[in-house]
Specification:
The complex is a heterodimer. By secondary structure, chain A is an alpha+beta fold. Chain A is 33% helix and 15% strand. By secondary structure, chain B is mainly alpha-helical. Chain B contains 13 helices and no strands. Classes of the chains: A alpha+beta, B mainly alpha. The structure holds adenosine-5'-triphosphate (ATP) and magnesium ion.
Chain lengths: 336, 303
């Protein structure tokens, strides 16, 4: 990342943090997450529109928040058209502020907006951009661990960007335990549901498979009501894993005597996803393999025939946008 | 006049504190990863700041605290400072952002332990399979080499400047080379010189990039067939390839040797040396104290 614009090396740092604020204007609140409030603003010197993610303090008495640190740590390492850009970081007396590129929309908003119609070309285009972004993360040994439509933001030019790296972490320190309590429930891979302490980028690939399904269905694919129900919903849809299809599955910590559901037949899947071509179904099946070692990785997914068959992926600038209706309540709120 | 520290004194002083990082991390039973990251933060902090501006003691603790969080080994500020003498939570929390800013918000540090593990695996692939290459080298020998190389890294790489001068895989190889030159050299030769004549390969189009540590073992079967088919026309190519291979190998060994030398140059700083510098540093950090002292003395002389 470039050094903060205000930085001039000879000035002691403690004096530097103050003026940084003046480089950016905070205008209005555009969103709120569990640990941050997001504002729209401008970079004063360039006039560029940006988003400022102000990390809430007071909820974390142990100094800088872990999620914020993770977000800074990993976004610093990643530069890719399909990963959100971290422009700068600065502090106000009690807050850490991440300056991000402004991304006014997200995929969840579009999925829920019933005025908007998705074509297979649109879905293909979003899938492609998501996969390119995650491929870049994985080849840098970074797991996202919280992929869901709400964290796939859309730029004004239609580019999709993976955002919210508050749960991300680096892969590949041998023997290190990882937490299985990651990923928003509906997008959580079966190995996580079983409490696996070692896992790979395959957990992100699962989430992408579930998002793919959601893009076609326009409703969440596996909406479990709680963690136990999530297992049931997942296996009802995709079959219960057995030792045959997933060797050693029964040795995972939370593997239990489960209701045994059969694997869905091809015809069943065809009925479930009526708009999907055979190639689309193939990709979906590869992404939602129960056994993580059989699930396809980002390279194989990107090379899949689904992306080369017709229709072509829609050009990002021609992708559907939020319908105007949706804007109205927002506009009203702004006037108040 | 305040006498300022010379760069040498400052370096000596920091070496002393670098060692305290390791002690602190060991005290909290933190994993190696945290130790290495904390040491890296500390060194980077003083690339852009001076001990005459920030006293190393609390910076050191802040680096450990921040590194622990960054490496997912969270420890609460209360239990952290409870174990430290004369340091309060506020001291560390106030410095945390300053440290983060000095690091230019770069928290990810690539350590040589990971490539070391990779080399441990590749040594097995290259030296033991399909059949052992050295009569006295087994999995156990290599396991032992790996463990001793890890100790070497802890001893020499954490506190020295090598992390600023060499890449993590180079440092890892230096650790192995200095631990067991014979085995490591054999590995490097087999890997980069393809010492076995039979396996010497045809240059495939687009395959002339530098052999680096990440080069995958090549598919020997298909290459052998290639040699048979294209032998005559590739002989001169062959020699060029041999030549560049040798150059790469020699450059690599030279780099490794240089790394070993620099890693071992650091001599431990004694407590006395550090105390001396500490005294000098005191007035630089607190110029007012010096003025007060001078005024007192002048007042005495007046009388
Ligand atoms: N770069 C951006 N541009 C515009 N809006 C943004 C941007 N980043 C985040 N937002 C908005 O702010 C909201 C919260 O951001 P984000 O998801 O990063 O925070 P979070 O605390 O991790 O949230 P959650 O825990 O709910 O996922 C998002 O849902 C989005 O509406
Ligand atoms: Mg979010």
């Amino acid at each position: 990342m470039s050094t903060p614009v205000v930085a001039s090396p000879p000035v002691p740092l403690k004096k530097r943090s103050g003026p940084a604020t003046h480089n950016y204007s905070k205008e209005r609140k555009v969103g709120e997450g569990t640990y941050a409030v997001v504002y729209l603003g401008h970079q004063v010197t360039t006039g560029r529109e940006i988003a400022i993610k102000e990390i809430k303090t007071g909820i974390f008495k142990d100094g800088l928040d872990m999620s914020a640190l993770r977000e800074v740590k990993y976004l610093q390492e990643l530069r890719h058209p399909n990963v959100i850009e971290l422009v700068d970081v600065f502090s106000t007396p009690h807050n850490l502020n991440l300056v991000l590129e402004l991304l006014p929309c997200d995929l969840e908003v579009l999925i829920k907006d019933k005025e908007v119609v998705f074509t297979m070309g649109d879905i293909k285009s979003w899938m492609l951009m998501t996969l390119r972004g995650i491929h870049h993360c994985h080849r840098n040994f970074i797991l996202h661990r919280d992929l869901k439509p709400n964290n796939l933001l859309i730029a004004p030019d239609g580019q999709l960007k993976i955002a919210d790296f508050g749960l991300a972490r680096a892969l590949g320190n041998p023997n290190e335990d990882l937490s299985s309590n990651v990923v928003t429930r509906w997008y959580r891979a079966p190995e996580l549901l079983f409490g696996a302490k070692h896992y790979t980028g395959a957990i992100d690939m699962w989430s992408i498979g579930i998002i793919f399904a959601e893009l076609m269905l326009r409703v969440p694919y596996l909406p479990g009501k709680d963690d136990v129900d999530q297992l049931d919903v997942t296996f009802k849809a995709l079959g219960t894993p057995t030792e045959q299809i997933w060797p050693n599955v029964s040795s995972l910590p939370m593997y239990n005597a489960l209701t045994v559901y059969a694997q869905p037949s091809r015809q069943e899947l065809r009925n479930r996803f009526s708009a999907a071509t055979e190639k689309a179904l193939d990709l979906m099946i590869m992404l939602t393999q129960l056994d993580p070692s059989r699930r396809c990785d980002s390279t194989r997914a990107l090379l899949h025939d689904f992306f080369t068959e017709l229709p072509r992926p829609t050009e990002p600038r021609d992708l559907p946008k939020k319908s105007i209706k949706k804007e109205e309540p927002d506009a009203k709120r702004r006037k108040i | 006049m305040i006498s300022l520290l010379t760069p040498e004194e400052e370096a000596t002083y920091l070496d002393f504190y670098s060692n305290n990082i390791i002690k602190t991390c060991n005290f909290f039973k933190m994993p190696t990863q945290v130790k290495l990251t904390a040491a890296s933060f500390f060194k980077k902090f003083y690339l852009v700041n001076s001990v005459m501006e920030y006293h190393p003691k609390n910076i050191l603790y802040t680096c450990v605290f921040l590194a622990a969080k960054s490496e997912n080994y969270f420890i609460s500020i209360d239990s952290f400072v409870r174990a430290l003498q004369g340091t309060e939570a506020a001291h560390i929390l106030d410095l945390e952002f300053i440290v983060l800013q000095s690091l230019k918000f770069t928290l990810l540090v690539h350590h040589p332990v990971r490539p070391l593990y990779g080399f441990f695996l590749d040594f097995q692939a290259v030296l033991l399979h399909p059949e052992p290459v050295m009569y006295d080298v087994s999995v156990d020998t290599l396991g032992n080499l790996y463990n001793r190389a890890k100790d070497w890294l802890n001893e020499h790489a954490v506190t020295s400047d090598v992390t600023f001068l060499f890449t993590p895989p180079q440092i890892a190889l230096a650790a192995m080379y200095d631990t067991d030159k014979r085995i490591t050299d054999r590995y490097l030769k087999r890997k980069f010189l393809k010492e076995d004549k039979e396996k010497l390969n045809v240059i495939k189009e687009g395959d002339e990039e530098q052999p680096d540590q990440n080069t995958e073992p090549q598919n020997e079967e298909s290459e052998k067939q290639g040699v048979v088919k294209e032998e005559s026309e590739t002989n001169s190519h062959h020699n060029i390839k041999l030549h560049t291979q040798r150059e790469h190998y020699e450059t690599l060994v030279r780099t490794i040797r240089k790394c070993i030398k620099i890693a071992k140059e650091v001599k431990p700083t004694t407590r006395e040396e550090s105390k001396e510098i500490d005294k000098k540093c005191f007035f630089a950090l607190n110029p007012k104290k010096l003025i007060d002292k001078r005024i007192k003395r002048l007042a005495l002389e007046e009388k």
